[in-house]
Amino acid sequence: MDCFSSGWIECNIAGNAQKPYYSIHFAVLGPKHLAGCLITGRLYCTARAMWKLSWFLRDFAYDTELLRKDEIDDQALLGLKGVLKVSHAIVHGISVLNLDGFAPAARWQELSPDAPDHLSGSEVA
């Protein structure tokens, strides 16, 4: 598993009525050797998966008033920053990126893979 400091750059609703998701695109801010790379992932917005979307929005400093009202404003999503914990998996022969965890941007130094006392993957997030 890898940890990245990232900034939100785009979000689109996709999927179907039974399993809608946000297709999200991030620009990597750190670690430095990966800065500028793009990460694309999905956050499902089904009733069962809303906890993860809420966790993401909270840790990426989404507008608390909008979050309290359960509202998502595409313009309010631009510029959000935080830490992503990701892993890769093969599903039906296709490589997919899993968004496993999130943390506020202020925790980047603590969670960074470049930090001298880096935590193991199972302890991050």
Name the descriptors.
125 residues; alpha+beta; 5-stranded antiparallel sheet; disordered C terminus
The percent range for helix content is: 10-25%
The fraction of residues in strands falls at: 35-45%
The quaternary state of the protein chains shown equals single chain
Characterize the overall form: globular
Number of helices: 4
> What does the largest sheet look like?
5 strands, antiparallel
Uncertain parts = 116-125
Whole-angstrom Rg? 14 Å
Mean pLDDT: 81
- Derived structural class: alpha+beta
Number of strands: 5
Order of helices and strands: EEEHHHEEH
Spatial ordering of strands, largest sheet: 3-2-1-4-5
Our measurement of the CA-to-CA distance between the termini, rounded to an integer number of angstroms, reads 11 Å
Question: Could you characterize the architecture of this molecule?
Answer:
The chain has helices spanning about 50-60, 65-70, 75, 110; strands at about 1-15, 20-30, 40-45, 80-90, 95-105. The chain is about 20% helix and about 40% strand. A hairpin with a 2-residue loop joins β4 (about 80-90) and β5 (about 95-105). With about 120 residues, the chain is an alpha+beta fold. The longest helix has 10 residues, at about 50-60. Strands 3-2-1-4-5 form a 5-stranded antiparallel beta sheet. The protein has 4 helices and 5 strands; from the N terminus they run βββαααββα.
